[in-house]
Amino acid sequence: MTSVNHQPMHSTIPPVIEAPRSSPGRPRRGRTNTELYAWMFMRISGVVLVVLVLGHLFIMNILDGGVQRINWAFVAGRWASPFWQVWDLLMLWLAMIHGTNGLRTIINDYTRRDGTRLALKGLLYTATTITIALGTLVIFTFDPTLQ
Amino acid sequence: MWSWVAHRITGVLTFFFLFAHVLDTALVRVSPESYDKVIDTYKNPFVNLMEIGLVGAVLFHALNGLRIIAIDFWSKGPRLQRQMLWLIVAVWVVVMVPGAFFMFKHSFEVLFGSK
Predict the structure, then answer these.
(1) Which CATH number belongs to the domain containing residue A80 in this structure?
(2) From residue B102, how far is each of A10, A65, A99, B38, B46 by CA, in Å?
(3) Structural domains counted in chain A
């Protein structure tokens, strides 16, 4: 394009402005902001999980005798309180989705063939759906009179 | 770059454990006996060591995650990223030393006598 300026004043060649490069064969990607929302979700859920997970680890592994005191009755006592039910439910959902999105990124980074990528993501989403459903069911249908 | 690698490894490790952990906790819905039996594996001294490793992995991932957020959203973040890495390593050590001590106390007593 700058060649226009270097032409002699009396040139008979008309200035040519090239058409902007476009790639007609490739549809425009990124019409939605999904990746931005995923990026934002990792940061927001991450901050919440720092509190939920580190609190969980401290209570379960360090406080008051740690893991040695945990048994069925201990869980029954905790889940008698809606506070801990909500805590565990929120932790389950956020941690599962946070981890799934993290692994999705890793799959995108390291898989080379489309088929491999598709298969791994299919496996990931299936495992995530089943695990979230199972965990949610357990928290909501837990029966403290089972003993 | 190595903090990025460590962030991935600790993340994947924790995520895979999470699947197993939801499954073992689901046994509270089956029977008290089956839940107590699976929870007993967590009380084994060797598994106890792996739990300390898991806590260490989660703690690093949490601290480094906060560092990433600071780099992304705090105007001085990118300039101070290296200092913040040393800061989180220091916090990690300060938390993990007493943390590991209290987590392993019972296993130590089981292994070496007093209990």
Answers:
(1) 1.20.1300.10
(2) 89, 8, 28, 22, 15
(3) 1
